[in-house]
UniProtKB/TrEMBL annotation:
It comes from Capra hircus (Goat). Keywords: Repeat. The keyword Repeat applies. One of its GO terms (cellular component) is Cul4-RING E3 ubiquitin ligase complex. Pfam families: NPHP3_N. This is Nephrocystin 3-like N-terminal domain-containing protein. Residues 378-485 form the Nephrocystin 3-like N-terminal domain. InterPro entries: DCAF12 (IPR051191), NPHP3-like_N (IPR056884), P-loop_NTPase (IPR027417).
Length: 863
């Protein structure tokens, strides 16, 4: 894809559903006219053409760089700008998102509307409690999202200022023992001040809206903040009419409010922040399109892209990079981590030249031919430790450290669990091969193992290619979390986990660093190999280091976070980094709903990670959720998952059975399908409170899909909420027949109904056939795979990814076991297409003949 800038006019080309379009912006009479129109060719600048010529011969697949999402926070006074917000959400933001999709990212405006605070709630005690907590933490939630959306911010200002304290006394807060004794504004100031935003008490008479502006624009600096002032001519009403309307809606604008909104606008203008004036919705839409198209062009410039090309590998690489960046944010250096860093570095830098002169160096052909002599060197380093001891975070930070220190050395990391599909062994091996191919030759992998002799195992061919790839040049491969590897597509789980697929000796060119838990089958199998060096990562028992890890995960400072529980902390010797991370996240979220010290005491009493997750799932359900039919949860029923019903439980179950994860808007629609509507509807504020508690554990991929960041939470959800024994991703296609899996099958079928109604091809292809397979809908699966639309799209896709082809073949293999024939299905589809075309031709001929007859009759009558 290419772009051109020309004077005051610019165009940006993108493709959707195989139709080229262009976003066109033009300065006309001081206003920007922006529209999306059909486009019939590429716009090529001289610079981009030169770059394209220079890169000729190199696959376009590696030229697309996925970008981070653009998520502006929408700020305005409460209860105002409903029409503007609806217009932007329906017409403007979708256009910006379409453009971002073609740049490898997405655009999602965060709009925490407060209408939920005024809604009438059914007589359920849990909802009343949640409603009160939401009212009191509304400001805190908004400030949290202003921070998470930074540096992007959109502010809509008119004539209203919002709720504020006319009279403020510090004594009110110092003597407050019960939030219910405070007004709503006082409650919000108190909760925000106690939970990371003490500065709000420096502005006690500011409205909640102005506090959002202060957080975004006055306490922080960003070039991606825009303010849109509604001009006074827009309402086209007299002041008396306007005042009467405000009085009827409960928001009378008095002299003090007019003064405050005027002063806020003056401060915004004085600071030099971008301000736009608009009179109507159309003008607002044009202004926002113009401003945010510039932002997109700056942050996510168009790149050379080949139409109908599957760019999946680029995104997979980006997910691993994103994973390492997130791990870097919370890493705490300790003596143990420094020791492991040194061991890893020495192992990776071990002089390979001396190894090349050894007898083992002459046996690279033996390695390719699967001859397994006893190696004279250690080519594999296995990092082990208990679950949650920090192996992934340590390896991710070591990868960053090593790449910066030795930029010329080839190091390729793969973190199993960083994405939903990263646990499949065939995808993992193919990822390494593709990366090695690109690093060695600058081209994508061209050998199509899935088109080879059907009698030869595709997996065996893939392993042979992997062995050949690591023999070309020196390389260091990092594979983290091998205990989570699975054979999703036809390979037995046991073969994957016992690492029997790995040749007995590796090329001296390759150093392989792997990590696993000490109790896994992978660990036992690898320890039996003579070419493996084992290193154990021991969880730190240093209390100061533990406190540093704990504080690192707090969004607000607290010198002594444990206070009353500090003695309990000192007595605990099994506080792994994972447990400390869980405790820190829960400490800062549960305190809004309950006594945080009692909560921590209960959590510290958990004997295992799974027991701890059980307690946390119980809290999430109690504090954020409600059920369509209430059931009581207690300590006796938590272990079995009974009583843990409601939209939070349903959301976690839907995520656990999904194939690639789910986007927020998809979850909203699915919850609506399940019956959470009307008074039971999950609003953006309810969702925001839940996401604050789960942000570290339900992470959002760069494509907007939510997934489980840690396997321990996924396992807890599957066992305690779904009630399954075998992990979902390792279940056989026939697991739906087992009564134990009835709840899992139910959610698979819900997702079948949902994705059958969707139109986004890649999302449907990612999810629908997976759920059809897992719920035993063989006829529907066969019809989907052989449908004209699917066949047409896949055949038009240039260089479909390994994943795309692997899934297509896998699904047909499953159907073949059930007696379905792919050839017969496609021939039947072709016959239907031909019959439909013949029918259309007959109708045209009939219509043409009828018209001719009528014309002849008219002519005859005239004569």
């Amino acid at each position: 894809m290419r772009r051109r800038h020309s004077g005051e006019r610019f165009q940006s080309v993108y493709s959707k559903h195989n139709e080229e379009k262009v976003v066109e912006a033009e300065e006309v009479g001081g206003c920007t006219r922006t529209k999306i129109v059909p486009f019939k060719g590429y716009i090529i600048s001289e610079q981009s053409e030169m770059k394209a010529n220079e890169s000729e011969g190199r696959s376009a697949q590696f030229l697309l760089k996925p970008q981070k999402p653009i998520q502006p926070y929408i700020c305005s006074t409460l209860g105002d700008f409903e029409e503007e917000r609806d217009f932007l959400a329906s017409y403007i933001f979708p256009q910006l998102n379409e453009l971002c999709n073609t740049r490898g990212t997405y655009f999602k405006a965060v709009d925490l509307r407060s209408s939920v605070l005024e809604a009438q709630i059914p007589s359920l005690s849990n909802l009343f409690r949640q409603q009160f907590c939401l009212q009191s933490q509304h400001l805190k939630l908004c400030l949290d999202y202003v921070n998470s959306c930074f540096p992007f911010f959109i502010c809509l200002l008119g004539q209203t200022y919002g709720d504020f304290l006319h009279n403020y006394s510090p004594v009110i807060f110092s003597k407050a023992t019960d939030l219910s004794s405070l007004s709503r504004v006082e409650q919000n100031l108190y909760v925000a001040a106690k939970n990371g935003y003490p500065w709000v008490l420096e502005y006690p008479t500011c409205s909640l809206m102005e506090l959002e502006v202060i957080q975004a624009a006055f306490l922080n600096e960003s070039q991606f903040q825009y303010f849109y002032f509604r001009s006074g001519t827009m309402p086209l009403k007299t002041w008396d009419e306007e005042k009467e309307e405000m009085l009827s809606s409960g928001c009378l604008t008095d002299d003090e409010e007019r003064l405050k909104i005027g002063m806020l606008k003056a401060k915004i203008i004085s600071k030099g922040l971008p301000v736009r004036l608009y009179r109507d919705l159309h003008e607002l839409g044009e202004l926002i399109l113009k401003d945010w198209l510039v932002v997109i062009e700056k942050l996510c410039p168009a790149t050379v892209m080949t139409e109908n090309t599957d760019f999946k590998h680029n995104f997979e690489r980006f997910y691993h990079e994103e994973f390492t960046e997130k791990c870097k944010e919370v890493f705490v250096i300790s003596k143990e981590s420094s020791r492991i860093f040194e061991i890893l570095e020495r192992f990776a830098l071990k002089d390979m030249e001396s190894d090349f002169n050894s007898p083992a160096a002459c046996s690279s052909l033996d390695s390719v031919l699967r001859i397994n002599p006893l190696p004279a060197y250690k080519s594999i380093l296995l990092l082990s430790g208990e679950r949650g001891c920090g192996k992934s975070t340590l390896l991710a930070n070591w990868v960053n450290y090593f790449k910066k220190k030795y930029p010329n050395m080839l190091l390729i990391p793969h973190f199993v669990g960083s994405t939903c599909e990263s646990s499949d062994i065939m995808s993992v091996i193919h990822y390494f091969i593709t990366e090695l191919q690109y690093k060695h030759y600058g081209t994508q992998l061209e050998t199509d193992i899935l088109n080879e002799d059907a009698n030869i195992s595709a997996f065996s061919l893939l392993v042979d290619m992997f062995i050949a790839s690591i023999n070309v040049k020196p390389c260091i491969l990092v594979l983290d979390g091998i205990e989570e590897l699975a054979g999703i597509y036809g390979i037995s789980g046991e073969k994957v986990k016992d690492i029997s697929w790995l040749p007995g000796s590796l090329s001296p060119h390759c150093k392989l660093i792997m990590s696993t838990i000490s109790s896994s089958l992978s660990y036992k199998s690898l320890c039996a190999r003579p070419d493996v060096r084992t290193v154990e990562l021991v969880s730190t028992v240093d209390k100061e280091v533990q406190l540093r890890i704990f504080r690192e995960h707090l969004s607000f400072s607290n010198r002594d976070p444990f206070r009353q529980s500090r003695y309990s902390l000192r007595k605990k010797t099994n506080l792994s980094p994972l447990k400390l991370t869980i405790l820190a996240n829960e400490y800062q979220e549960c305190r809004i709903y309950r006594n945080e010290f009692q909560c921590l005491k209960e959590y510290l009493g958990a004997a295992s990670i799974q027991e701890l997750w059980g307690l946390i799932l119980k809290r999430w359900v109690e504090d954020y959720s409600w059920a369509l039919k209430q059931k009581k949860a207690n300590s006796d029923t938590v272990a079995s998952g009974e009583g843990l019903d409601g939209w939070v439980s349903d959301t976690l179950c839907l995520l656990s059975v999904s194939h690639f994860g789910l986007a927020e808007d998809e979850i909203y629609q699915l919850l609506d399908m399940l019956g959470y509507k009307g008074h039971y509807k999950v609003t953006t504020l309810h969702w925001a409170a839940f996401r604050n508690a789960t942000r570290h554990w339900l992470q959002e991929k760069p494509n907007g899909l939510l997934y489980f960041r840690h396997q321990s939470l996924r396992s807890a959800v599957e066992q305690k909420l779904l009630g399954v024994v075998t992990p979902v991703r390792e279940s056989s296609p026939y697991s739906f027949q087992d009564p134990v899996n009835h709840k899992k099958t139910h959610f698979h079928r819900i997702l079948v109904k949902y994705f059958q109604r969707q139109t986004d091809f890649w999302r449907v292809y990612q999810e629908l056939p997976w759920h059809l397979k897992m719920s035993g809908c063989w006829e529907d699966l066969s019809s989907f795979l052989s449908s004209p639309s699917i066949t047409d799209f896949i055949t038009k896709t240039q260089s479909p990814s390994f994943w795309t082809r692997l899934h297509l073949i896998h699904y047909w293999n499953v159907l073949s076991e059930m007696g379905y024939d792919a050839t017969e299905a496609y021939l039947l589809t072709a016959a239907k297409i031909k019959a439909d075309q013949c029918q259309k031709m007959k109708k045209r001929c009939t219509l043409s003949g009828t018209v001719s007859t009528n014309v002849s009759m008219v002519c005859s009558a005239g004569l």
